[in-house]
């Protein structure tokens, strides 16, 4: 909001019209889509900021504030600041009241006591009805003809909001006309239908304070509900407010395009929309709606077309509107007509202070952009910039995270005689940061191997970096010949020395397929499940020790296990079993109950059967899964 920027940066903020407001503060422009200028200034005293001061003017071509106006604002803010500071120092700070105080700028002095009654009597003699609303849209006066046209009693209307007194006028579109007249000091009009079907024309004239309504009967052909200049903005206003909230949740460029297209294209009667970015002088379509494949191929890879910077109406960094191909060519003489459209709105995209592309809204025929459309689309451009910058930064961050995740997980598992292996990694939901789940298979000798699975606390780069250190430490100690308990103990001491404030669960398993011998050690990790042929699966008790990184002197017990031929050992992280409100022991028992490997069944199919039943909506954490089967080895 303008006043927030003014207070934060300790400077006066001036916005000459609603286009300026839409360009700099799109969210504010959507909630205040009226013709007015605004100045916001901080209220300071004693080196502290005590508040903000906002003034508004109906626009009339003001390009800036005069020296006299600036002096008045400065003096007023200084006086208010001193008042607030002194009150605070006395221990009696000035607290704002629940509702603002409305001041009447006109101090009327009646020449004689009956002037008001005479004016009302004069209005009652006119055939049309008149009604006055104050700045809160409360009824202050109703003439007799107006009460008759509205089918209401004047005594029951006075003191109420018009929409409360007449529910059939309680509509945001009608309220927008009142506010436009009040804020912008511009006459507006609209037609509305009484409950009995009779249509009335309401003409709203700004007065001080509030507005005067002139009410006359009309027919459908005589009174359009809204004039052409206002229709796109009024219809789009409330949808645009919803769009502003929705865009805050957009995660990708296509999300941005889809949201804007759904809310705006039908209102503007536009036929296509695209977000173009450029790199190394070449254009690329990152998201689109309404363009054919051929049209998109025409854009992708083409050189960026540069504008003639002295062309009429061109202003770098601001929204531009071209009603026809001829207008477009005046600014972009080297452009080639690729999309066969007839008019364009170009909304610039800026990320981290640099231009990275543009949002194109296209019309299939020439189109004259009204002032209201330009203001709305300019405000829309500001929202798109904010949403696209978030999506652009997220995409870059996510790509980096995915590359980091892929580099930390093994690209391929080694082939171990007598051991069949399958692995899976599934992120909790699209859009989550990098996880800390990991797995590995380590060749210890020609006939022995070790498997490890773990989960580092957190979902960020720190978790990923720690995951890499844990994997490296485990590999180093495993290849040095340590048994499972010793591997975890050595790794634990390293993590406590690093003092990362992150804990890690881990399960380490050594295999000797020829001897069918397995050794296991756990650092607070969920127990493995052993699937047997022709018998129920078993949950293996591993006597888990403390999580890694808590106590440097923690000890980890090695549990020995015999693994029959064809048996499958399942190592997993808690994302496979954890569900909100569900007991972890019950979830592990359920996993064992549904794990029934068949003779000769492919491990990849088994892995999919375990991962598959958990939907994305049910996943609360990333999932790593490692399956190992003891197979006969040639003698």
Q: What's the arrangement of strands in the largest beta sheet?
A: 5-4-8-7-6
Shape: elongated
Major sheet summary line: 5 strands, antiparallel
- The parts where pLDDT drops under 50 for at least 5 residues are 106-114, 221-237
Kindly state the percentage of residues in helix.
Answer: 25-40%
Provide structural commentary:
- Mean pLDDT is about 80; it is low at about 105-115 and about 220-235.
- The protein is elongated, with a radius of gyration of 36 Å.
- About 35% of the residues lie in helices and about 25% in strands.
- The chain has 4 domains: about 1-90, GAF domain (Beta-Lactamase); about 115-225, PAS domain (Beta-Lactamase, 2-Layer Sandwich), CATH 3.30.450; about 235-400, 2-Layer Sandwich (Beta-Lactamase), CATH 3.30.450; about 410-630, 4-Layer Sandwich (Phosphatase 2c, domain 1), CATH 3.60.40.
- The protein has a 5-stranded antiparallel sheet with strand order 5-4-8-7-6.
- It is an alpha+beta fold and about 625 residues long.
- It has 18 helices and 23 strands.
Short description:
The protein is 35% helix and 24% strand. It has 18 helices and 23 strands.
Helix and strand arrangement:
Elements: H1 2-9, E1 13-15, H2 18-24, H3 26-31, E2 36-45, E3 48-58, H4 67-89, H5 115-124, E4 129-133, E5 139-142, H6 144-150, H7 154-157, H8 162-165, H9 172-184, E6 188-193, E7 199-206, E8 211-217, H10 231-247, H11 253-268, E9 272-279, E10 282-289, H12 293-299, E11 320-322, H13 325-331, E12 343-351, E13 354-363, H14 371-408, E14 419-426, E15 437-443, E16 449-456, H15 461-479, H16 484-498, E17 504-512, E18 517-523, E19 529-531, E20 538-539, E21 559-562, E22 568-572, H17 584-594, H18 603-611, E23 623-630
Antiparallel strand pairs: 1-2, 2-3, 4-5, 4-8, 6-7, 7-8, 9-10, 9-13, 11-12, 12-13, 14-23, 15-16, 16-17, 17-18, 18-21, 19-20, 19-22, 22-23
